[in-house]
Each structure stands twice: as structure tokens, then as C-alpha cells.
Amino acid sequence: MRARLPLKQYIQSGKLFFRFLFILFVLIVCVFLVLPEMHAIAEDTHKIVIRPATKENAEETQDDVSDETEDLDTIAKQGSPYVRTDLPPADIVDGITDPEALKDFSFPEEAKLLRVVFPKIKECDACLVTDGEHSILIDTATAKMAPDVVKMIRRQGVTHLDAVYITHPHPDHGGGLGEILANFTVEKVWTSFSDLITQTAKDMKAYCEYYNVPLGHYGDGHVFTVGEAYFKTYATDDTIYTINDRSAAYRMQYGRAIMFFAADLERLSLRRLGNTVDAAELRMDIIKYPHHGKDPLVREFWQPAELRFAIVTSDATMRNGKQDIRDKHWPHAFTWDGEIELTTDGNTWVIRRLPDYPDNIEEEGTTQKNLIITQQ
Predict the structure, then answer these.
(1) How many Å apart are CA 79 and CA 260, to the nearest integer?
(2) pLDDT digit string (tens) for 25-62?
(3) Residues 304 and 279 sit within 8 Å (Cβ to Cβ)
(4) Domain CATH number, residue 289
(5) What Cα–Cα distance (Å) separates residue 108 from each residue in 12, 104, 163?
(6) pTM attached to this predicted model
(7) What one-character DSSP code corresponds to residue 211?
(8) What angle is formed at CA 135 by the lines to CA 132 and CA 138, rounded to 5 degrees?
(9) What's the structural domain count of the chain?
(10) Which of 245, 248, 239 is closest to 216 using CA atoms?
(11) pLDDT band (50, 70, 90) for residue 271
């Protein structure tokens, strides 16, 4: 039979136990108070540095100074600002929500038009931007859906691409590159990831080598143009972020017309942009909604954005982001419902759904050659 502890020892043991609980409570409180401050410090440490897009700092983002693009030279010669925040918003003629609105509208005859076209795709990204003389493709969709991207580009009368920009090396954004290079002449392919090796990144490099197309790297602050439309890149190479959150996003401005291409950005990078980019610079008319409408936009981003139309590269099936779009009553369109064409003269956007084309129509084109790529 065990001997009982004296009452005094019981009391001392109780005091030690309550002291332990008190210390534990203090530690927990300290953790909740200190961690947000540490996170804020980390945010400040890793925030985007917004610099003027001079030729000098643009060259810093390239692996080779000789890779400097003609677009940056053009900007330097013209002295034109690539971000204008002093202009009123462009008008929007929404022919998807209200097809009747298109009947009474026409652009001035002398207008120089810019077209932004999305193919019929879902859960992947691809977008053509063209002014009739210069054309770029932003992302290439998956290998499976890339033939539909090829058909869309051909229907727009484009046979040559000045550049293909890949926002990040995931198969739903860069997987269709081989199909694009097999069907069009391309001056250069650009990727914002130079330090990350995924299978998609390896495939992209192999296709560029096979088709003898230069592969360049770009980063935050990189500026490029399509005619008189200016694109500014927002990106981070900080590996504390996921691949999606390291996607390259673009602000496109043509006159008063502003569109934001948000790639697959998630909450952390959207919040980072909202906290580090001037609110006036984040204002936009139209957004290519991030990550196929999977998650809602964070308040720090959508409040200054003041967006008035959203393109979602998906179908209408329920996701949190899609529901948030409906709850906020933002006009929107899904790419899986059919090709979407946005046309602007710099003052007005015209948004319309292009007619469906029968699948049995044979179109000229080349199927990409199957390359055997060794996976390391």
C-alpha cells in the first residue's frame, strides 16, 4: 500500500501545476501576438519593388543583355508611360450579358483596334492579344486543349506570333507549347521561372530547342508591347510562395482600356499585390480571373481593382471563386461556353461571344511531333 503524500506536498504540487499552466498561457498569448508582426515583417521583406521600366533595369531580368527586346527600345524612344492612372475608365459594351447592346454600337472607322481572344477551354489558360500586325499568346492551355487554341488563332487570321508568354510552368498553362510551335512561326518564348525545374519546364525547353525558337526569362517589372498596348509584369521569385503564387501577372493598358491577367495567383500573392502596388495602378476594367475561378479574390485586391467584368477560364460548375463573383454581381463569362472576343479602341471595350464552329470542319494545321523527353 502506497504511503500518502503530506498535505503540504500536495499544495506545493498544485502550485507547480498552476505555475505551469500560467507559463503555458503566457507563451500562447505571445505566439498569437508576435507571429502576425513577424509575418508583417516578412511581407515587407519580400514585397515587390516597383521600379520604372527603364531599359537598364529591364535588362537585369534577362539572362543575356543581348536579349533586350525591341518593345523596350520602342518605349524608350517614344518616352510613353506604360502605366497611366490619370485617365477615366473605358466604357464597356457587354454583348454577352446583353446581345442587343451590340446592334447600336460601332467603332469609328479610323480606330486602331486591339483584340483579346480566349478559346473555348476549361481549367487551363490561353489568350491571344493582337492588333492585326503584332500578336502574342499568353499561355498555351494543356496539350489536350491546345488544338482548340490553334483553331482560334487561325480563325483570327494570325499566322505569326511575336512572342509566347508562359506565366508559370504548370501543364495547364505551358503544356500546349509544342502544338503552338508546330503550327505557327514564333519569334521567342518567354518564361518567368528560371530557377524551377518541373516536367512542363523541361518539355518547354525541349520544344524550343526542337523548333529552334529562343527561350528567354523575364521577371517583375518586365515591360512588353503589342502595338500601342503596354504590358507590365508583376511577379516574385521568392520560393516561400507556391508555384501558382509565383505566376507572372500582367497589367495591360491601351489608352483608357485596362485589363489584368491574373494567371493562377492565389490569396497570398493577391494580398501582396494589394498591399504593395498603388491602388490607382490596380484599377482595371476587366480581369482574367485567377486560377479558373477556384477561390475568391481577397479584399486587399478587389477593392482597389473596381473591376467591371471577369473572364473565367472554366465552366459554370460551382467553385468558391465563381460563387463569389455571382455574390458580388460582377458581370462575367466562362470560356467553356464558347470563344470570347474583347475588342477595344482604347476608349471602349466590346465583349462578345464568337459563334460555335462545327467540330467536323477540317482546318489546316500541323500536329506536334511527339518528342521523347527524358525525365530526370
Answers:
(1) 23
(2) 777 755 544 444 343 333 333 332 323 333 333 333 33
(3) yes
(4) 3.60.15.10
(5) 90, 13, 29
(6) 0.77
(7) T
(8) 140
(9) 1
(10) 248
(11) very high
